[in-house]
Amino acid sequence: MTNPVEICALHKKKRSDHICYMDFQLKFEGDSVSSEEGKMRAVLYSAMMTLHGMVGLGHDPDLKYFDPDSGRGIIAINSMYASKLWTALTLKGDVDGKKCCITVLDIKDEMDSLKDTTQCV
């Protein structure tokens, strides 16, 4: 018979290794979209640092895709920290002094299921 402590540790390990994919959209005031992939990486860093400090940076969100024309992108993150990233993005109100809104559109277990909605190749 398996020890309950071992089961709990195994369950926790499986959760901590699970990656989910977050589909988001960046919009600036007046519905204009103008941001580069490199800038979006800096926005992720800034959002996590502002809301969660150095601890937030340790969650390491990975920008997998960003389309500067539509403002749509996909971020990979450990599912245990997805809510922290979602909160940080939602509360991000400006980029380079321009008012903006970052909306999380969907979260999936597989990136392929998001590719259809973002037209990612």
Automatic annotation (TrEMBL):
<keyword id="KW-0819">tRNA processing</keyword>
<dbReference type="GO" id="GO:0030681">
    <property type="term" value="C:multimeric ribonuclease P complex"/>
</dbReference>
<dbReference type="Pfam" id="PF01900">
    <property type="entry name" value="RNase_P_Rpp14"/>
</dbReference>
<dbReference type="GO" id="GO:0005730">
    <property type="term" value="C:nucleolus"/>
</dbReference>
<protein>
    <submittedName>
        <fullName>Uncharacterized protein</fullName>
    </submittedName>
</protein>
<dbReference type="GO" id="GO:0001682">
    <property type="term" value="P:tRNA 5'-leader removal"/>
</dbReference>
<dbReference type="GO" id="GO:0033204">
    <property type="term" value="F:ribonuclease P RNA binding"/>
</dbReference>
<dbReference type="InterPro" id="IPR002759">
    <property type="entry name" value="Pop5/Rpp14/Rnp2-like"/>
</dbReference>
<dbReference type="InterPro" id="IPR038085">
    <property type="entry name" value="Rnp2-like_sf"/>
</dbReference>
<comment type="similarity">
    <text>Belongs to the eukaryotic/archaeal RNase P protein component 2 family.</text>
</comment>
